[in-house]
Amino acid sequence: MATNFDPDKFDTISITFDANVAWVTLDRPEVLNAFNQTMQEEIRATWRAFREMDDVHAIVLTGAGEKSFSVGIDRGDDMSALDDKENLYGTSNNYMYDDPGDDLGPKSCDLWKPVICAVNGMCCGGAFYFLAECDIIIAADHATFFDPHVTYGMPAVYEPMKMAQRMPLGEILRMTLLGNHERLSATTAKQIGLVSEVVPIETLHERASWISSTIASQPTVAVQASLRSIWAASDLGRLNALSLAPSLLTTGMSKKAMAEGQALFESGDRINHQTR
């Protein structure tokens, strides 16, 4: 385990392990799993620790309870933008801003292992820092998605910028500009491609477990190289990403994994797959 990583001492998240899958639960249900500075620090420490834990092949991220995945930043905490200082963010000038997404997003913390997000209720505002950098998103059928920034007098900047990779432009504009006045249902979220599957809350854990354990059962180097390649295409655009393709392909090649795959193919055994 990574040096100095002791999740038993965490106050805001809980972490469990099931074979090669780590389960990370945002665990502040009394405030609808809103994040504070402590959660930011614990999430960042977790993402960074998982980079070094070779026995963790995939991660599931969810929220405690059935009411909320996360409602973003804890507005019950003091907000530096509302104090009597001239600068908004507690720094010497407003150009230096520590965005919470730098801590909350797995990709921002350089974690390139698959993260499955199981949305178990309300998901809004700063919670999109999590969604924007997860790889597969599934949702309970009562889950809702919305962004209240403008309703509460704040510009929505980082969250819609990140979510623009996950949602059609018209949908991200509508959700952002309507603020707290409209919520996206889980069904609509699936229709626009934000989530890949909607299930009853009673089976959310089971589905997340199947997806994560299935991914975790496959050769890790092939999975991680494929993941990195897809995100490169999303972040850089097709042509720039293709210039990296030979390096990513070479890095992700493992003779051992390929030999095992060939042996599986030649055995004649076929996977009893599911159809979605």
Strand arrangement across the biggest beta sheet: 1-2-3-5-7-10
Structural class: alpha/beta
**Low-pLDDT sequence parts:** none
How would a crystallographer describe the biggest sheet? Answer: 6 strands, mixed
The topology string of helices and strands comes to EEHEEHEEHEEHHEHEHHHH
Total count of helical runs of at least 4 residues:
10
Number of strands: 10
Shape: globular
Q: Which radius of gyration do the C-alpha atoms yield? A: 20 Å
CATH architecture of the largest domain: Alpha-Beta Complex
In CATH terms, the superfamily of the largest domain is 2-enoyl-CoA Hydratase, Chain A, domain 1
Which descriptors apply to this entry?
single chain; 276 residues; alpha/beta; 2-enoyl-CoA Hydratase, Chain A, domain 1; 2 domains; 6-stranded mixed sheet; 4-stranded mixed sheet; 10 strands; 39% helix; globular
What would your notes on this structure say?
The protein has two domains: 7-216, 2-enoyl-CoA Hydratase, Chain A, domain 1 (Alpha-Beta Complex); 220-267. It is built from ten helices and ten strands. The protein has helices spanning 37-52, 101-104, 128-132, 158-163, 169-178, 186-191, 201-216, 220-236, 238-252, 255-267; strands spanning 13-18, 21-26, 58-63, 68-70, 115-119, 122-124, 136-140, 144-146, 184-185, 197-199.
Concise description?
The protein is α/β, with parallel strands linked by helices and about 280 residues long.
List the helices and strands and how they pair.
Layout: E1 13-18, E2 21-26, H1 37-52, E3 58-63, E4 68-70, H2 101-104, E5 115-119, E6 122-124, H3 128-132, E7 136-140, E8 144-146, H4 158-163, H5 169-178, E9 184-185, H6 186-191, E10 197-199, H7 201-216, H8 220-236, H9 238-252, H10 255-267
Parallel strand pairs: 2-3, 3-5, 4-6, 5-7, 6-8, 7-10
Antiparallel strand pairs: 1-2, 8-9
